From TrEMBL:
Residues annotated as domain GST C-terminal: 1-117
Any Pfam family: GST_C_2
Protein's name according to its UniProt entry: GST C-terminal domain-containing protein
GO molecular function, one term: glutathione transferase activity
Phylogenetic classification of the source organism: Bacteria, Pseudomonadati, Pseudomonadota, Alphaproteobacteria, Rhodobacterales
Highest taxon listed in the record's lineage: Bacteria
Species name: Antarcticimicrobium sediminis
UniProt cross-references to InterPro entries, sorted A to Z: Glutathione-S-Trfase_C-like, Glutathione-S-Trfase_C_sf, GST_Omega-like_C, GST_Omega/GSH
One cellular-component annotation, GO: cytoplasm
Length: 143
């Protein structure tokens, strides 16, 4: 996932961008379907794979969607993915490690080849503290 976002964002030809874009959204579609059957990527327990995906998903709507031109859908447009990222964000101690202000500042200011003006957009910040529905996935899978 993370590699796909960067391949699209740093593409130097239209074809390279479109190939990376298509692969990225195919992967998001696959993850959306998987998370409809399983609370976490590999079952009913959080693993390192979930945290690695989380770091990409938590940045997606605020940065990658616009900055890297990966704008077919937002994570908020995927019911399972958006609930999943909120589920992980709401794990004790996690919210304190996420600063969308800092994330946006880093990407929009440091990557001058993509954003030469260094303007940081004001919007695009999902509410990760909003309720999620991931409990039902575990119950459905077990039942």
């Amino acid at each position: 996932m993370n590699n796909g976002v960067y391949r699209a964002g740093f593409a130097t030809t239209q074809q390279a961008y479109e190939d990376a874009f298509d692969q990225l959204f195919d992967a998001l579609d696959t993850l959306e379907a998987r998370l409809g059957r399983s609370r976490y990527l590999l079952g009913d327990r959080v693993t390192e794979a979930d945290w690695r995906l989380f770091t990409t998903l938590v940045r997606f709507d605020a940065v990658y969607h616009g900055h890297f031109k990966t704008n077919l859908h937002r994570i908020e447009d995927y019911p399972n993915l958006s609930n999943y990222v909120r589920d992980l964000y709401q794990v004790a101690g996690v919210a304190e490690t996420v600063s969308l202000w800092h994330i946006k500042q880093h990407y929009y200011v440091s990557q001058r080849t993509i954003n030469p003006t260094q303007i940081v957009p004001k919007g695009g910040e999902p509410d990760f503290a909003r309720a999620h529905d991931r409990d039902h996935v575990t119950l459905r899978a077990a039942g």
